[in-house]
């Protein structure tokens, strides 16, 4: 906790010291210079370059400009829309590295209002200098910094409502009981509920004796809830000191409105300070600090889990006291002893099978507060060594991040009461009560689930830049970079150590050549193989500068070709060893439940794995081609990239290439087969972004279209398949594949079952069950009959954004498209089995009467092992278009603000996550077992002082 307070203190000191310093030196207006710098300078690995000199595989987003017309809370809101190449990953590779102001950090700890620019580094040459852990792409975030000018203040206030999109639809008690009886009869069992019971549950005359619990009703949920945020920014500076500080607070309430859940909230308070000091004409220092307080307070109830699982007929959570007879002294004594009489009118209901429930939890189980605290500090020193060599500079940096999380909980026990009903005099009355549990409040706050994480960043570089004879532009860099992360519960730290070298030349910004390489070091590998070499080469050509190009409608045109090999250790890991250390070492361990007499009672020994002295880095081998430019005075700008390559040397234990005696059979089993570099994946695809700019009748219009298509197929795998099972081979199929059985509809009758191959999934197949195809012709349907069903990711990602500016009005809209993917409807809403709650989907179940029209298998009280497994019966296309944002902004005219202390004022209204266009819209908008998705309607005010 002390680090948090230190962070806040640093931020405050930065703000006030910077303000005082700026007041002591004459101010210089440099707005044009600042804007010019923002427009042309792009932050890449360890340096900034002019935008015109960007080589292939790099995209840049001007977040500061976007936030003037688009309010958002996520730092990643724009990267999948306004540029190509990002689809939850970069160029089809998961686990991108996030770098904030040169430090490896989390993207969720910086807000869009704090960000100046985001650079997406995609190509191998663009990321190589960051080392092994950056091998799958980098999102580089640059926060705002101070500017030359008088102290300025920006204030932004937003407030809006979140409205749930959809809730799951579950059956009421009577319908559920009817269908559950049907399921039991399908399984050859007697019904559980009588017709009389079902009738009384259906009438609703006494919902306390015959419950019909709907946890999505307005009795427990609000129609909407509020989210409010306020942010202040102070910035300015002079030739000696430039500063930027910001602080803000966000609070979001909850849709729940029952018991203590009405006080649920999430809050986030933060403070950031960035300070740049020009101590000497050759020496500058930058110091940044950030502190974030995040809290999530709530009642101790698993409301949404209960809403998806608690059957409607099981329990009435709140029962009125009026049902108790006045002369029933024993029952009144039990209630009077309870500490949880709700509003003086209700007692908590329960049963022997359900002694507690989410509603009662919301009132009496206590509260829980999740706490997250983060402190970040970094400093950078820049030294101009022109006295030694013109163009030579040195930079060093150091950063430390500290994050901790824990829960503060008050755990209460409580009693519930099951009424024993009677109606001897006509109306229903409670004859007596059975109690379950006890009321106990310790009053002691518990601290649990504590976790921490430290991240250290350290590095230094020499760079050299020189222009000779106006046209020959040289650049060179040697950089040493390291970062290390220690996490609670893990013995080893996550480490990235790298030495990078870059040498670049361009002639008159027309011909480019760049050599960038790295020497990564990994402790995951045997000592002889821990140092790697990652070379990349990039060539660039700007043909519009050629004489033969002549007069053209092209403003600019740039062609780049890049190739390289990056050695990485990110994929040196297994499911059992996520950190990936010591996989090259052999392991012999104790195993078995028996012992040998001559071992004095010691258990048997088995080999876990053999030695792998040749284990080395996994290699990203890639070639990419880029083309970017603009035409007709930037009426259209475009950026295209094509990439292809392999990920060579994935870690596996290749059983098929080792002798059979390397595997220890019997009990205990074991193996001498080591982990080796074997798997190969082939990856290819393209990305694009195009912007069209046009003025029509005084309206400035901008349309942006971006997207990416990528595919990654398994090129080599360790497989030992028989000829009849070759359809199980993963080679040639996408690595993100869905595999399952091919369905042939539902069995109509027993004759079809008898004539079909045996479906060996551990339960008797009956009419109404799913029928599968025998792929290998062995007469048995089992897991050897699986086939490729489709990709679970999104092959093609499309983003569209539109801006229309007329006078002081600005309209901004953003939509995202996802095409080519598939999914399985396999959660509890669709796979209704055993004692599950029944959703409305079961209305289309198979029966003898509906065998020709049924779209859902027969109901069953078993685990449904035959029906509820991966197959194309549950497959659906994930194609959809989401209208993610629409915002209208009005800038108050400057003439209306003359003579006031307000320099600028804007108001805006917006809607977010407004619309999903898809055949599967209901599925996409519905959450099962978690809080609902929401649409957000916001109004905001932004002032500049």
Automatic annotation (TrEMBL):
Recorded superkingdom: Bacteria
Cell inner membrane found in the keyword field: no
SUPFAM superfamilies documented for this protein: Porins
Keyword Signal: yes
Signal peptide: 1-23
Keywords: Signal
Record-linked InterPro entries: Plug_dom (IPR012910), Plug_dom_sf (IPR037066), TonB-dep_OMP_SusC/RagA (IPR023996)
Every TonB-dependent receptor plug domain range: 86-138
Alphabetized NCBIfam families for the sequence: OMP_RagA_SusC
Protein name according to UniProt: TonB-linked outer membrane protein, SusC/RagA family
Species annotation: Alkalitalea saponilacus
Lineage: Bacteria, Pseudomonadati, Bacteroidota, Bacteroidia, Marinilabiliales
């Amino acid at each position: 906790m002390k680090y948090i307070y230190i962070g806040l203190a640093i931020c405050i000191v930065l703000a006030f010291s910077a303000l005082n310093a700026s007041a002591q030196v004459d101010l210089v207006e440099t707005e044009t210079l600042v804007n010019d710098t923002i427009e042309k300078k792009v932050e890449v690995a360890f340096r900034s370059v002019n935008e015109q000199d960007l080589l292939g595989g790099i995209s840049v987003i001007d977040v500061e400009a976007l936030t003037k017309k688009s309010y958002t809370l996520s730092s990643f809101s724009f990267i999948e829309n306004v540029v190509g190449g990002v689809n939850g990953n970069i160029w089809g590779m998961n686990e991108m590295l996030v770098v904030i102001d040169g430090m490896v950090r989390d993207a969720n700890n910086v807000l869009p209002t704090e960000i100046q620019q985001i650079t997406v580094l995609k190509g191998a040459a663009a990321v190589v200098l960051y080392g092994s852990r950056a091998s799958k792409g980098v999102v580089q975030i640059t926060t705002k910094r101070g500017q030359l000018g008088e102290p300025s203040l920006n204030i932004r206030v937003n407030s809006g409502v979140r409205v749930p999109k959809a809730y799951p639809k579950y059956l009421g008690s009577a319908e559920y009981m009817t269908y559950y009886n049907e399921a039991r009869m399908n399984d050859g069992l007697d019904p559980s509920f009588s017709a009389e019971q079902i009738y009384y549950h259906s009438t609703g005359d006494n919902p306390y004796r015959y419950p019909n619990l709907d946890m999505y009703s307005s009795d427990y949920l609000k129609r909407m809830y509020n989210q409010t945020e306020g942010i202040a920014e102070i910035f300015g500076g002079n030739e000696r000191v430039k500063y930027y500080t910001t602080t803000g607070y966000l609070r979001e309430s909850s849709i729940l409105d029952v018991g203590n859940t009405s006080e649920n909230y999430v809050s986030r308070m933060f403070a950031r300070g960035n300070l740049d000091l020009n101590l000497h004409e050759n020496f500058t220092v930058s110091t940044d600090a950030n502190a974030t307080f995040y809290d999530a307070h709530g009642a101790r109830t698993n409301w949404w889990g209960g809403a998806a699982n608690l059957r409607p007929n099981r329990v009435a959570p709140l029962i009125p006291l009026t049902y108790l007879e006045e002369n029933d002294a024993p029952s009144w004594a039990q209630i009077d002893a309870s500490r949880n009489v709700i509003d003086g009118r209700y007692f908590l209901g329960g049963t022997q099978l359900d002694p507690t429930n989410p509603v009662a939890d919301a009132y009496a189980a206590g509260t829980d507060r999740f706490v997250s605290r983060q402190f970040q500090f970094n400093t950078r020193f820049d030294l101009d060594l022109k006295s030694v060599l013109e163009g030579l500079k040195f930079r060093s940096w150091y950063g430390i991040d500290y994050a901790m999380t824990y829960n503060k909980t008050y755990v209460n026990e409580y009693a519930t009461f099951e009424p024993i009903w009677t109606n001897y005099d006509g109306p229903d009355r409670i004859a007596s009560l059975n109690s379950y549990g006890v009321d106990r409040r310790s009053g002691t706050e518990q601290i649990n689930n504590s976790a921490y994480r430290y991240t250290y960043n350290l590095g230094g570089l020499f760079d050299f830049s020189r222009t000779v004879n106006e046209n020959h532009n040289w650049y060179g860099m040697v950089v040493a970079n390291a970062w290390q992360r220690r996490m609670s519960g893990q013995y080893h730290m996550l480490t990235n150590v790298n030495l990078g070298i870059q040498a670049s030349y361009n002639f008159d910004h027309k011909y480019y050549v760049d050599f960038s390489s790295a020497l990564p070091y990994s402790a995951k590998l045997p000592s002889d193989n821990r140092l790697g070499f990652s070379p990349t080469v990039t060539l660039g050509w700007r043909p519009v500068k050629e004489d033969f190009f002549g007069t053209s409608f092209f403003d600019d045109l740039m062609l780049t070709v890049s190739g390289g090999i990056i050695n990485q250790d990110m994929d040196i890991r297994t499911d059992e060893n996520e950190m990936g250390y010591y996989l090259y070492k052999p392991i012999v361990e104790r195993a078995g439940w028996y012992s040998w007499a001559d071992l004095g009672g010691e258990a048997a020994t088995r080999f876990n794995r053999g030695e792998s002295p040749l284990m080395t880095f996994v290699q990203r081998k890639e070639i990419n081609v880029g083309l970017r430019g603009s035409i007709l005075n930037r009426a259209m700008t475009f950026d295209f990239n094509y990439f292809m390559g392999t990920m060579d040397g994935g870690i596996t234990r290749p059983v098929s290439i080792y002798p059979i005696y390397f595997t220890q059979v019997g009990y205990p089993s074991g193996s001498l087969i080591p982990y080796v570099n074997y798997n190969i994946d082939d990856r290819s695809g393209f990305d694009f972004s195009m912007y069209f700019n046009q003025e029509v009748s005084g309206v400035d219009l901008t349309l942006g279209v971006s997207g990416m298509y990528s595919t990654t197929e398994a090129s080599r795998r360790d497989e030992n398949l028989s000829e009849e099972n070759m359809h199980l081979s993963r080679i040639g199929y996408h690595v993100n594949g869905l595999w399952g059985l091919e369905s042939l509809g539902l069995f109509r009758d027993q004759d079809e079952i008898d004539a079909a191959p045996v479906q060996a999934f551990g339960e008797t197949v009956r009419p109404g069950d799913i029928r599968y195809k025998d792929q290998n012709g062995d007469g048995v349907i089992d897991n050897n009959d699986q086939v490729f069903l489709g990709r679970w990711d999104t092959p093609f990602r499309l983003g569209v954004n539109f801006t229309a500016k007329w006078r002081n009005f600005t309209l901004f809209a953003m939509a995202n498209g996802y095409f080519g993917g598939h999914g399985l409807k396999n959660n509890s809403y669709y796979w209704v089995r055993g004692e599950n709650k029944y959703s409305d989907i079961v209305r289309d179940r198979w029966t003898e009467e509906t065998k020709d029209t049924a779209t859902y298998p027969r109901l069953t009280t078993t685990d449904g092992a035959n029906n509820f497994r991966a197959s194309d019966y549950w497959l659906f296309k994930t194609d959809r278009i989401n209208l993610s944002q629409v915002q209208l902004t009005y800038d108050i005219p400057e003439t209306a603000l003359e003579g006031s202390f307000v320099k600028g004022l804007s108001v805006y209204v917006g809607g977010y996550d407004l619309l999903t266009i898809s055949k599967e819209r209901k599925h996409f908008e519905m959450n099962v077992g978690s809080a609902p998705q929401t649409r957000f309607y916001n109004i905001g005010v932004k002032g500049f002082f």
